[in-house]
Structures are given as structure tokens and as C-alpha cells.
Write a structure and sequence with these properties.
Number of strands: 9
Shape: elongated
Order of helices and strands: HEEEEEHEEHEEHH
Largest sheet: 4 strands, antiparallel
Distance between the termini: 111 Å
Radius of gyration: 26 Å
Number of helices: 5
Strand order of the largest sheet: 6-3-8-9
Helix content: 25-40%
């Protein structure tokens, strides 16, 4: 067998290996955890846990660098003593986490979360098992999410849409008062 034949076989095997690695990587789960503005309540920040991958994650466990706060409400400061997730998925995990499935928690408000997190990023790791494309074994996966609530500074969650709505309401009240003053002058 000549050198060209050996090189052809090696290149073919490498091509198959790379194709399999790309294929396998596209089929694995990917668990992300992030903060997001609530769609209907502009001052509320949601904590979202989502499997954005293309396969099921099994026996998912979450590990954080410190306790994860919950119900951290407060437009100017934390209104109540710090509470932490002591049940649910952050304590018990998720047995089967399907692709595109998500868990959404009303996490708190900007300044409440800033105080509850001591103005520091929160790191949460997700450990899980998944099936390889050949369905022969369950490799282990790990995804890391870092949430820095300070990144939401300047968004409506920071100052709250309540202030904007109050400003608009004040302008409307001024207009109504001007109309009433004109009517009063004619009487």
C-alpha cells in the first residue's frame, strides 16, 4: 500500500470523526440560566432556566457559587429580608428536561436583586446526562451561566415604568386642569 493510499484513509477517517463530532454536538442539550424583563410587568425581572439544545437532559442538578435569592422585590432597596430558593428545581433538580422547555420565576426587581446579590454576578452550573447520538451510553454534560444583574442598569426595570406612567399621568392632569380653568373663567 502506497503513501497516498494511507493518507487517503487517514483523511477519510478524520473526516468521518469530525462529521460525527459536529453531529453529536448539535444533538446535545444546552441549559442556560438568565435574567429577563417580565413582558407585562416592566419593573419585574424573571429568572429563566431553559434547555436551548436539541436533546433531552436527564437528572439535571444545579450548583451555585452561593444561595440563589428569590422574591427580591424593591424599586429602591430590598423590601423584605433575603429569601433563597429552598425548593423546586434549584434544590431537587429536573428528572427530564426537554428541548425548548423552560422554567420562569418572577425573581424580583432591579434594586432588590442588586442588594440580594451584593451587586456581584451569580454563577450557576447545570450538570446533567444525555444520550449520545448512537444511543449506547449517557455522557455527562455541564453548562455554566453567569448572571450579572448590573447589566440591566438603564433598562426600564432599573427605574420602573411606574415613573414613566406617573410622568405621563401628570402631563394629562395638567392638560385637564387647563381645560377646567378655561371653563371656570367662562362661568
Amino acid at each position: 500500500m502506497g503513501l497516498m493510499s494511507v493518507l487517503t484513509i487517514v483523511i477519510s477517517l478524520l473526516s468521518v470523526l469530525i462529521a460525527y463530532m459536529v453531529f453529536a454536538n448539535n444533538l446535545k442539550p444546552k441549559i442556560i440560566i438568565f435574567a429577563q424583563m417580565h413582558k407585562n410587568k416592566k419593573t419585574i425581572i424573571n429568572l429563566v432556566v431553559k434547555n436551548i439544545g436539541n436533546d433531552i437532559a436527564y437528572d439535571v442538578k444545579f450548583v451555585s457559587d452561593r444561595p440563589i435569592p428569590r422574591s427580591a422585590f424593591g424599586l429602591l432597596k430590598l423590601e423584605n429580608p433575603n429569601e433563597f430558593f429552598e425548593s423546586g428545581i434549584f434544590s431537587y433538580g429536573i428528572k427530564v428536561f426537554n428541548p425548548q422547555q423552560e422554567f420562569v420565576y418572577e425573581w424580583g426587581q432591579f434594586y432588590g436583586l442588586m442588594e440580594a446579590l451584593n451587586e456581584q454576578p451569580l454563577e450557576i452550573k447545570a450538570y446533567y446526562k444525555y444520550r449520545n447520538p448512537l444511543k449506547l451510553w449517557y455522557p455527562k454534560g455541564k453548562d455554566v451561566s453567569v448572571i450579572d444583574i448590573r447589566e440591566m442598569s438603564g433598562l426600564p426595570v432599573n427605574y420602573g415604568s411606574v415613573r414613566v406612567e406617573l410622568k405621563n399621568l401628570t402631563e394629562e392632569v395638567k392638560k385637564i386642569r387647563q381645560v377646567l380653568d378655561k371653563i371656570d373663567d367662562k362661568i
